[in-house]
Design goal:
Residues 248-365 form the Glycosyl transferase family domain. This protein is of the alpha/beta class. 39% of the residues lie in helices and 18% in strands. The strands form three sheets. A seven-stranded mixed β-sheet has the order 1-3-2-4-5-7-8, sandwiched between helices.
């Protein structure tokens, strides 16, 4: 998939490339949200969106796209195991490394043709590719990694980037505890295409009031997802046992067979149910609904929160969707059904408990981040122009401490972490291990105790890791003054 938009006549300005991967619909939806937000900035001349799987070979595309959902359906325990195994940051990534070699050439060619000044990744696969291109000096564009779930997963952390955007504050705290600098990590929320009207203002502090009187019963929005999951049939069947008054809109996605079965099921209920196939009217439906029943994908959940719409969670994918659900329930914006037999009862409990639906709506509205896409653009384009490099030594420290449940920023000694700070603007340009400083200090140390990184023309060049770091952070300059900042707090 390649989509290009130009907000106006060709003019000097930012050229933004958005890289996604069509594993599910969420990553591409986030890319579309960022693309739309580009139209709101006068400094952007052209935008292009590229699904990297569409540029890869068919076998690999099917392996990731279709194979993943086969595992979700038939072997969910394996999906959960894979999620947990790949969660520690900088752990070896198995099949992902061969992808960088076998499928990167068409993507790299597309990057060179477009000549972007900024690249935004809404999937970890292109983010890992861009890190290698930055370290090799192949690209000279600002790069951003934008996560699409509420929990941060280790696969998203790469060795080189300009900005990393996570969904919530806890993810930002997690990354700074690993050693990542706060000037490179922001909690913006997940990019969504904002609704044309805001969610109604609700009082989150008032937990005693009853729901406001209304002339129409609450509207349930039941979503089977873009592909149309069969679990929606069980959900609809259970709602037919609800005693509280309600109406329901059922969205079946592209599954025409499912739509037909649900239409047959609800026919005796008259006009209480409305059954739709794939629709482009989801933003409108989210605004009209009072309660959403479906899976807690990162984009679906973010769209609901932005609309002030609480969720009843069913059939979450092990790993990221379960964790999304945990966060929403923790914040009071969702309830979860762990068995199909209780779905109707649980929805009825929400509807008939005085004030409960209103409190959940207020909690959802509090979590909503409708401006996330615009915040991502501002954070990248208005942020540091030099990339931030995580050296291999620092990666080993981060991985080791993560596996041992230690805090990387609390380490002392040779394996502790230090940062190199651009002295001219104050932004962090590198995270490295203390023992990696020796070579740099010997070659580039100054009388003041700082460093002057420069292109080294001597016969005896610095070590390979130091050369990678210097090449990436210097960009077009011949030299860069930096100072060293330790992370471990001094002992008393």
């Amino acid at each position: 998939m390649r989509r290009t938009t130009a907000p106006g006549p060709a003019a000097p300005g930012e050229r933004v490339l958005i890289l996604s991967a069509g594993v599910g619909s969420g990553h591409n939806s986030a890319a579309a949200a960022v693309q739309q937000a580009c139209a709101g900035r006068a400094d952007i001349a052209e935008v292009q969106v590229l699904d990297v799987l569409q540029a890869s070979n068919v076998l690999y595309r099917d392996l990731l796209g279709k194979g993943y959902f086969v595992l979700v359906e038939d072997l969910p325990w394996l999906v959960e195991w894979g999620y947990d195994q790949s969660d520690p940051p900088f752990r070896r990534r198995g099949l992902i490394t061969p992808w960088n070699r076998a499928n990167a050439l068409p993507v790299v060619a597309a990057i060179k043709r477009f000549q972007p000044t900024a690249i935004i990744c809404t999937h970890f696969l292109p983010a890992q590719l861009l890190a290698s291109l930055l370290l090799r000096g192949t690209i000279d564009a600002r790069t951003a990694v934008v996560t699409t779930d509420y929990d941060f997963q280790g696969l998203w952390l790469t060795s080189a980037f300009h900005a990393l955007f996570v969904a919530r504050e806890e993810g930002r705290v997690q990354l700074t505890a690993l050693g990542l600098p706060s000037d490179r990590v922001s909690a913006t929320g997940i990019p969504i295409i904002p609704s044309t009207s805001a969610a109604p203002e609700l009082d989150a502090a008032d937990t005693s009031v009853s729901p406001p009187s209304r002339t129409e019963p609450p509207m349930l929005l039941i979503s089977a997802g873009a592909a149309g999951g069969d679990y929606a049939l069980a959900v609809v069947r259970q709602t037919m046992h609800i005693r509280s008054p309600f109406t329901a809109t059922v969205v079946c996605g592209r599954n025409d067979e499912l739509r037909g079965r649900i239409e047959e099921l609800v026919a005796p209920a008259g006009d209480r149910y409305r059954v739709l196939g794939f629709t482009t009217e989801m933003p409108k439906l989210l605004r009209e609904a009072d309660l959403f029943i479906g899976k807690p994908g990162g984009l679906s959940a973010s769209e609901c929160m932005a609309a002030g719409l609480p969720m009843v969670l069913v059939n979450p994918i092990p790993g990221q969707e379960v964790r999304n659900g945990d966060y929403l329930m923790e914040q009071g914006a969702a309830v979860r059904c762990n068995t199909a037999a209780t779905i109707g009862w649980k929805i009825d409990e929400v509807l008939r408990t005085p004030g409960r639906l209103q409190r959940m709506q207020a909690a959802a509205q509090r979590l909503g981040r409708p401006d996330a896409a615009a915040d991502v653009l501002s954070g990248l384009l208005d942020g540091p122009s030099r990339p931030m490099i995580v050296t291999r030594g620092a990666q080993k420290t981060i991985l080791a401490t993560s596996e041992k449940r230690l805090i990387a920023t609390e380490l002392t000694g040779p394996s502790s972490l230090v940062r190199l700070i651009d002295s001219s603007v104050g932004s962090t340009v590198a995270l490295l291990r203390a023992d990696e400083l020796d070579d740099l200090e010997e070659r580039y140390g100054t009388p003041s105790g700082d460093l002057m990184l420069r292109r080294d023309q001597s016969v005896v060049s610095p070590r390979w890791e130091a050369r990678r770091l210097i090449r990436a952070v210097l960009r077009g300059d011949d030299a860069l003054p930096v100072h060293v900042e330790g992370l471990a707090a001094p002992t008393t």
